[in-house]
Amino acid sequence: MADRTRGVVWVPQPVNKFDYHPASVFGELVIIVNRKPHPTIKNSDAPSMVSMVRKKLENFTDSDVVLPIGDPALIAMVTGEVILITGGLLNILKWDNKNHKYYEVTVDLRN
Questions:
Q1: Residue 84: inside a domain
Q2: Which of 38, 49, 69, 70 has the fewest CB atoms within 10 Å distance of its CB?
Q3: Per-residue b or e along 30-56, where b marks 16 or more CB atoms closer than 10 Å to that residue's CB
Q4: pTM
């Protein structure tokens, strides 16, 4: 598993056309769903996907970040579960096209 002396970068679903490895400066990259080709999640898949996301994120900490890449439904499941785990705190990475690097954005819904 990940080196817990620094945060983990949780990647919902890798996409081949993006280079998300620059995000590794924020922590070890951990893939949540590594299915190829990248399927679209259907309503019938949602309950099992939520269960799988919960299992994968059971070691999530406040110092971890989410790199929102992959199927939008899966990204929503991951960020929703993170908000439940942290009680309303979400750290995500956002790509800056001008500077060609990721920035951490903190969303605090606890207030």
A1: yes
A2: 38
A3: bbbbeeeeeeebeeeeeeebeeebeeb
A4: 0.84
